[in-house]
Structure formats: structure tokens, C-alpha cells
């Protein structure tokens, strides 16, 4: 990579973040807020009331035309054409060998229109794959990543806060559904989705309208601006995988315990079907598990999971942190399947100290309502 | 914020002489800002001997963990027990109530080899 490639992009909310005192981080070529006041307060706001995120770094790809659904059925492991208009699904795009290229949310926004949301780091790969895979279909595939800003309001108070700013009856916008409406007078696609384990909404808006929507939400005084640091601790507590940590091109959805997203019963061929049909019938040698540690000293990405008696390597930690909500360390890890049962007593090599951990079922945290 | 009266290490620790051959050690404001909210601090016990460069403890935030290295050789004479229950003192008062340990140095003159405020500020500005 030459230094010219290292130029980072700024979201239309960059000035707003600066005024709020954000500390920034480079994330997949974007300068994004890492935190404002403090990541613990932000994390706790999302669990207890509501937080406001700028997620403009996420990629958006739009497919439209008579065969948009058929193109996605071929390009993705999910059954996009079976999604009802206004609904959304969590799905994945895989390589021919079944390896995960990205995890995605697909929103069916019209009879002949879909919005695919990809991770920032994979946005170009996904857009190019959809264009290539969609070439034989009567559909137009457009990388609209620069055409949208994405805001998220997450937390138990989200619906109450948004209700005052939109004419839409939010009880009609169910989980994993989207609705074109206005917020603070601005046209948005309002989706009841998120990555925090709480109720919440994501708002797709035109970049030039992003500041107006952010400001209207912030001025309610009921949302705490939140950075990517707490987004990571929130999703970890909720047991949600992160591409690059729990999901990689070396793993199939079955390896990641997410075989349910692969719709082998959908009609027609799709990219990766042959490999995934084989993967569906075999037991992976390692399984994705939750680990809890008694203290706050956390197993971190890349640390070895070992047998507490022999010290033999049993796996590797993919994500880990001291959980702000639970008060002890939590981690996700791939461990040998025969040792992956909840209750299994293992250890993690935390910088030279063999620290006891216990396998638990995911998620670590589940909202009560 | 880089107070002039302190000494610094390239590992973002501050060191100040508080008695005869006794120094107090903490992490800098820059370091705490890089870490984010500190949720756990591990410190050595009083009486432990450390050599320069040896791990003295660690500071853990939700985002990452950072080793604290002994800037100089000596014996631990005090640890900040307040950090066990209030690790956030490192964020709110890195140079004061967020101090970590005190060491009796084997060789107090080694203190002169550490960075002064200007030297440390230059290091931080280089990013």
C-alpha cells in the first residue's frame, strides 16, 4: 500500500463529532469516533437508556429490477426473494469454497428493490462480488456506500425518543423491519436493527441530511453520543460475531455455528452451495463458544485457549474484554468441539498466566424485555 | 497534559522522586486517553523486587490492556490500593490519585536517564 492509499475518509458528521470532543480512530479507511466522554458511560447508556451512533462507514449496495431477488438468491447464502417487502434478514456472502466473505443485513425495500448492508472493511469486496454475481440477471447493482449516511439509536428508550420526531407509529416497525418515513422532517429509511443486543433503530439518510437528523436526536437530551469502542463491547456481550474476529474467509457459516443462515432448501444454485452442502453434513473440529473468566483480566483476541491440566492448546480467543454490564471478563473463542460444552473448564494463556475460564452458552447478555 | 516536574519513559509512564531514593510511578494522561476507561489494575505487592524493564503490573480497559514496565530497578515500597476499587482514578487523575506504585531505587542516579517533560512531549507529538 502506498501512503496515498492511506487517506482516510470522513463522515458528514465529522465536524459534529469534533465539537463533541470525540477521540477518533482509523477504521477500514474511515476516521470514526472511537469514544466521546468515555466508553463505559456510553456502553451503560445503551444498556440503560439510549445511545446515538454514526455508522456511515458501513457499506450500502442497492439492487433493483425484476430479478434483484433472484440475483441475491444466487449471490448470497440466504433466501432473499422470500423476504417480505419491508422486512430484513441477517445473512452472509460466501466464496465458492464456502468461506465467509462478509456477514450482511439484507433489507427488502420494495417488490423489486433490496438494500444490502456490508461491513466497512468488506464493502468493496461485497459490492464487486454482487456486481459480478448479478451480471446474468435482470437487475442493476449499485454501490451506494457514498450515497448514505447511517445513524443508529440503540437502547431501551430508543422508540420513545424517535416517536417524538417521526409521524410513523413505531409499534408497526417490528424487529428486522424497515420503513421509509421522516425523522425531524428528513426522509429516512428507518430500520429496527442493530448490533448492541438492545432494542434500537438504524436510520439511512442522505449525507447532506445527516447533521440535521443527528442534531435533532442529540437535542432531545435523551441520547448519549457513542463511539465504536462501546459498539464493540456491546456486541460482544450480546454474543454477536464480528467479521475479522469470529468470521473469516477461512471459516464457513457452519464453522461459526451460524449454519442456520445457509438456506440449502432454497431453489436453484448459489455461490458456495456445493461446498456448503458438504460442510452441513460434517462436524467442525472447533466450535465457537462463550468463555467467562472470574476476574476482570480478560482473554483477548489471539490468546491461546489451553487445557488447564496439561497446557495443551485447545483453541484461540477471537474477541474478549472485561464486560461492563456483567462485571467480569467475557470472550468468544474457537475451541476443540469435544471440549466446547457449556460448563467445560478450560484455561486461557493471558500473557503468560494460565487463567481459568468456563465455557458458557452465548449470548452473555440478553435484554429482559 | 505533560507536567514539567515529572520524569517520563517512552512506555508512557511518569516517575517522580517522593523521598530519598523513592519514586512514585503512574501512567501518563496520554496513556490513559489511549486506553479509554480503565476497569482493572493489577499491581505488584509491597516488598517485591523488580528490575528495569520488568512488568510491574497491567492496566485494562474494555478496549485493550497495557503492561506497566518498571522504569528502574528497585523494591516496591507502596502500592495504590485505591485502584483496586476505583480504577477510574487513572482516567480522572493520572498524575495524582491515579498513581500506581512506589519503588525504592537501587540506584537513584538512574533517574537522570529518563525523559524530561520536553522530551516526552516530543515523543507524544510524533504520535
TrEMBL record, chain A:
Location of the GCVT N-terminal domain: 13-266
InterPro entries for this protein: GcvT (IPR006223), GcvT/YgfZ/DmdA (IPR028896), GcvT/YgfZ_C (IPR029043), GcvT_bac (IPR022903), GcvT_C (IPR013977), GCVT_N (IPR006222), TrmE/GcvT-like (IPR027266)
Residue stretches making up the Aminomethyltransferase C-terminal domain: 286-365
EC class of the enzyme, as a word: transferase
Domain of life: Bacteria
Catalysed reactions, semicolon-separated: N(6)-[(R)-S(8)-aminomethyldihydrolipoyl]-L-lysyl-[protein] + (6S)-5,6,7,8-tetrahydrofolate = N(6)-[(R)-dihydrolipoyl]-L-lysyl-[protein] + (6R)-5,10-methylene-5,6,7,8-tetrahydrofolate + NH4(+)
Similarity section: Belongs to the GcvT family.
Described function: The glycine cleavage system catalyzes the degradation of glycine.
Name the record gives this protein: Aminomethyltransferase
Species annotation: Kutzneria viridogrisea
UniProtKB/TrEMBL annotation, chain B:
Gene Ontology CC terms, in alphabetical order: cytosol; glycine cleavage complex
Positions bearing N6-lipoyllysine: 63
Record-level GO BP terms: glycine decarboxylation via glycine cleavage system; protein lipoylation
Co-factor binding comment: Binds 1 lipoyl cofactor covalently.
Pfam families: GCV_H
Boundaries of every Lipoyl-binding domain copy: 22-104
PROSITE patterns linked: BIOTINYL_LIPOYL (PS50968), LIPOYL (PS00189)
Alphabetical UniProt keywords: Lipoyl
InterPro entries registered for this protein in UniProt: 2-oxoA_DH_lipoyl-BS, Biotin_lipoyl, GCV_H, GCV_H/Fam206, GCV_H_sub, Single_hybrid_motif
Cofactor dependence: (R)-lipoate
Top-level taxon of the source organism: Bacteria
Protein's job: The glycine cleavage system catalyzes the degradation of glycine. The H protein shuttles the methylamine group of glycine from the P protein to the T protein.
Subunit and partners: The glycine cleavage system is composed of four proteins: P, T, L and H.
Family (UniProt): Belongs to the GcvH family.
Name of the protein in its database record: Glycine cleavage system H protein
Gene: gcvH
Amino acid at each position: 500500500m502506498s501512503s496515498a492509499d492511506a487517506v482516510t475518509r470522513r463522515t458528514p458528521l465529522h465536524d459534529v463529532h469534533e465539537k463533541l470532543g470525540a477521540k477518533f480512530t482509523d477504521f477500514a479507511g474511515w476516521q470514526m469516533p472511537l469514544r466521546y466522554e468515555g466508553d463505559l458511560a456510553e456502553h451503560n447508556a445503551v444498556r440503560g437508556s439510549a445511545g446515538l451512533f454514526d455508522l456511515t462507514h458501513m457499506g450500502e449496495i442497492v439492487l433493483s429490477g425484476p430479478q434483484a431477488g433472484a440475483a441475491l438468491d444466487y449471490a448470497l447464502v440466504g433466501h432473499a426473494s422470500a423476504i417480505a417487502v419491508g422486512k430484513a434478514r441477517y445473512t452472509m456472502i460466501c466464496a465458492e469454497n464456502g468461506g465467509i466473505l462478509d456477514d450482511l443485513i439484507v433489507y427488502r425495500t420494495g417488490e423489486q428493490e433490496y438494500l444490502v448492508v456490508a461491513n466497512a472493511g468488506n464493502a468493496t469486496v461485497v459490492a464487486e462480488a454482487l456486481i459480478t454475481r448479478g451480471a446474468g440477471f435482470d437487475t442493476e447493482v449499485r454501490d451506494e456506500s457514498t450515497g448514505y449516511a447511517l445513524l443508529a439509536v440503540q437502547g431501551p428508550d430508543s422508540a420513545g425518543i424517535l416517536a417524538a420526531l417521526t409521524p410513523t407509529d413505531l409499534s408497526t416497525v417490528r424487529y428486522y423491519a424497515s420503513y421509509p418515513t421522516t425523522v425531524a422532517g428528513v426522509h429516512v429509511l428507518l430500520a429496527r436493527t442493530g448490533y448492541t443486543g438492545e432494542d434500537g433503530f438504524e436510520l439511512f439518510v442522505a449525507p447532506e441530511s445527516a447533521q440535521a437528523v443527528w442534531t435533532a436526536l442529540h437535542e432531545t437530551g435523551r441520547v448519549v453520543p457513542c463511539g465504536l469502542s462501546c459498539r464493540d463491547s456491546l456486541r460482544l456481550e450480546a454474543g454477536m460475531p464480528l467479521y475479522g474476529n469470529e468470521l473469516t474467509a477461512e471459516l464457513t457459516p457452519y464453522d461459526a455455528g451460524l449454519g442456520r443462515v445457509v438456506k440449502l432448501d432454497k431453489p436453484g444454485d448459489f455461490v458456495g452451495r456445493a461446498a456448503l452442502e458438504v460442510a452441513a453434513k460434517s462436524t467442525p473440529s472447533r466450535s465457537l463458544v462463550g468463555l467467562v473468566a472470574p476476574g476482570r483480566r480478560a482473554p483477548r483476541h489471539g490468546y491461546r485457549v489451553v487445557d488447564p491440566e496439561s497446557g495443551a492448546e485447545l483453541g484461540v480467543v477471537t474477541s474478549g474484554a472485561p464486560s461492563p454490564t456483567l462485571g467480569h471478563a467475557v470472550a468468544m473463542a474457537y475451541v476443540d468441539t469435544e471440549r466446547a460444552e457449556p460448563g467445560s473448564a478450560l484455561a486461557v494463556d493471558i500473557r503468560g498466566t494460565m487463567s481459568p475460564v468456563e465455557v458458557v452458552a452465548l449470548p452473555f447478555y440478553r435484554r429482559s424485555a | 497534559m505533560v507536567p514539567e516536574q515529572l520524569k517520563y519513559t517512552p512506555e508512557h509512564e511518569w516517575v517522580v522522586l517522593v523521598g530519598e531514593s523513592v519514586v512514585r510511578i503512574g501512567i501518563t494522561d496520554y496513556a490513559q486517553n489511549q486506553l479509554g476507561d480503565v476497569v482493572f489494575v493489577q499491581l505488584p505487592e509491597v516488598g517485591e523486587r523488580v528490575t528495569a524493564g520488568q512488568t510491574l503490573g497491567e492496566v485494562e480497559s474494555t478496549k485493550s490492556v497495557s503492561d506497566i514496565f518498571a522504569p528502574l530497578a528497585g523494591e516496591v515500597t507502596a502500592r495504590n490500593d485505591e485502584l483496586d476499587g476505583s480504577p477510574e482514578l487513572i482516567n480522572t487523575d493520572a498524575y495524582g490519585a491515579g498513581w500506581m506504585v512506589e519503588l525504592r531505587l537501587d540506584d537513584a542516579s538512574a533517574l537522570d536517564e529518563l525523559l524530561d517533560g520536553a522530551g516526552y512531549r516530543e515523543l507524544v507529538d510524533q504520535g
